[in-house]
Amino acid sequence: MSGVLNDCDTILQAAPVRFVDPYAALLAALAELTSDDLLSPSEKPAENIRWTAILGERAGIDASAAALGITTERTAYTNAYNTLNGYIVGGLGAAFTTIPGSAVPIVGATYRTNFTNYFSAKQTLLNAITAASAMRAAYSSVTGKPDVYRIVTSGGANTASLISPQGLYVNGTHSMGVRRSYVLAVIRRSDHAIVHLQNYDVYGNGADSAGRNAATLAGDLNNFANSPGQYIVVVYSGDEPYNLRLTGGLDSALYRNGASRAVFGSPQFQYRATYALIGISGCGEGNGAEAYQGAVVEDPNSWIDVTFQLYQGQILGVTSNYKPKTLQDFSYTGDMNATSGAPAGTNVAGVPAETVVAKANNALPAAPTFAINFNGDGDIYGAANSTLSAGFSVNPAGYTGSYSVDWSIRVTSGRATQGPYLIVTGNSASVTATSNTGVVRFVVTAVVTHSGGLTASAGGSSSLNFGSA
Predict the structure, then answer these.
(1) Which domains does the chain have, with CATH numbers?
(2) What is the pLDDT of residues 273-288, one digit of tens each?
């Protein structure tokens, strides 16, 4: 009918209907998920859990490695962690930790490589920790090992850097510190028990040691000397050992236990020098090992670092020994010229004194000269979890006659699982240590003493490098 609106016309004239693809969002999410260079919101929760676990485990792993002295693997692990941390925190930032957030642009290859390198370095370090722990446990279960004693001390004016705290160490454990004048440590040879450990303020006549002075120390030394051969007697100084040391019978008591007039009783013994004695109870004068440093009053280089081992009551490998060098050490105060004061033309057994002097001077042995040869140029390299040795020898030259050699070692850095041990055989010596990884650096010194009393010394540094074969 004309002019009448038909219902069908109304429907046909309405706005067109839009077609919405129900799969578009799904396809976009799938594209994010499958893209190698996008970290999708659905992937981020698992990745954040993995990253949080890494943050939580790192401190414990690093502390375990440090406690066992592991260096190479620990450094590689730290570097891998730092690279990954820089990539996640510094590169991806808050977008990585915001969940669900939006997709995070990444470089897939770099992302995977950083995580892979971390987990690889972590596993290598865990393997090293396991091996080192097993080695330490195995060594701790070994019976009959030698006990290692170390004495580190200095004079009051010393400026050299030493380990802290100073004093007496037994198998690496600090047992007694340094006090003014002297400390006496007595070790029973039958079971290595320390039966006496006390300090004596000889300088202050007992002011800093509850009245224990030179006479008190002398009395204690004599008591142990009355049981000859039963004890190891260790005496070491601190700060100032010079004043009043020859009073109260202290010198005689020390001589009974191995000290000597040429060292402890020497007029060359200086104010604020450093002294140590390792002797056997009642062994007699001069039969102990003495260490001394102090060339002048308040010598800034007055310090000693002495190590010895005790195995079944026997002293092994004392690493320092002082020998008297001049007649002044024996308290000689006369002229060094045997014909001093004789008038011209004086004969000695019918020979002119001038001739005697000339022949005597020509007969004096020259000061020993020698060199220490280091195997492997001084630095030894070997596999991790191994035992390494560095060998040394002395080649005296330029004189004739008999001589003796005293060897010493001073560790300057690093730590081994076992050792380092100094093994001496006459002109030769070796330093041996066992460890997992790392570097042990040390200084070896040899002192040659000629039968005529002249001495010469030489030394050098070396290192044992574990895990650097």
Answers:
(1) 22-140 (no CATH), 147-322 (no CATH), 372-466 (2.60.40.10)
(2) 999 999 999 999 988 8
